[in-house]
Amino acid sequence: MGVVILDGTTVRSFVENEVEFNKSVDSRFNALDLNSDGVLSKSELRKAFESFRLLESHFGVDVVTQPQELTQLYDAIFDKFDCDHSGTVDLEEFRVEMKNIMLAIADGLGSSPIQMVLEDDDGQSFLKKAVDLEASKFAEAM
Ligand SMILES: [Ca+2]
Fold first, then answer.
1. Fold of 2-141
2. Is residue 6 within 8 Å of 114, Cβ to Cβ?
3. EF-hand domain: from which residue to which, for each copy (predicted)?
4. Fewer CB within 10 A of the terminal residue: the chain, N end or C end?
5. 133 C-alpha to ligand 1 centroid (Å)
6. Span from the CA of 44 to the centroid of ligand 1 (angstroms)
7. Cβ(102)–Cβ(22) under 8 Å?
8. Residues with C-beta atoms within 5 A of ion ligand 1
9. Which tens digits make up the pLDDT trace of 116-129?
10. Is 110:7 a contact under the CB 8 Å cutoff?
């Protein structure tokens, strides 16, 4: 477990590094595509958001959300990803919306850094990757 400092600039520069960002998004997409049919179904995408825990936790404090509300929430998220309303999310749709979400997070963070506690198994998380990338840039500059 480690503590990292994260601000909007860190997240933004990660998103804007298209090669690194798409690599992370693509590997996440493949991990989520449980039946390997090349698209994400509603339940596959729901699992993604349950694992991100962006919705259920608020500043690290778990909030209780009713299952029915959650289902509506996940349906709304799925519609946002599924731009062409095909009933599935393809890689391109996933990339576009992940970028939107990360930029929204960056805007939310602004220039006030937050401290994040990362569990050991968070090695694959997007935010962790953003921090690692920023750290490697500092290392190169020195
Ligand atoms: Ca699938």
1. Recoverin; domain 1 (1.10.238)
2. yes
3. 20-55, 69-104
4. C
5. 29
6. 7
7. no
8. 33, 35, 37
9. 666 655 445 666 67
10. yes
Percentages of the chain per state (helix, strand, coil), in multiples of 5: 60, 10, 25
Phi, psi dihedral angles at 48 (to 5 degrees): -60, -45
48 in Cβ contact with 40 (< 8 Å): yes
C-alpha of residue 43 to centroid of ligand 1, in Å: 9
C-alpha–C-alpha distance, residues 51 and 11, integer Å: 19
- What is the Å distance from ligand 1's center to 21 Cα? 21
Distance 129 CA to ligand 1 centre (A): 25
pTM listed for this prediction = 0.71
Write the secondary structure of 53-114 as one string of H (helix), E (strand) and C (coil).
CCCCEECCEECCCCHHHHHHHHHHHHHHHCCCCCCCECHHHHHHHHHHHHHHHHHHHCCCCE
For residue range 128-137, what is the model confidence (pLDDT) as tens digits? 677 676 666 6
Virtual torsion, Cα 18, 20, 26, 31, nearest 10 deg: -150
Geometric angle at alpha carbon 84, from 78 and 86, rounded to 5°: 70
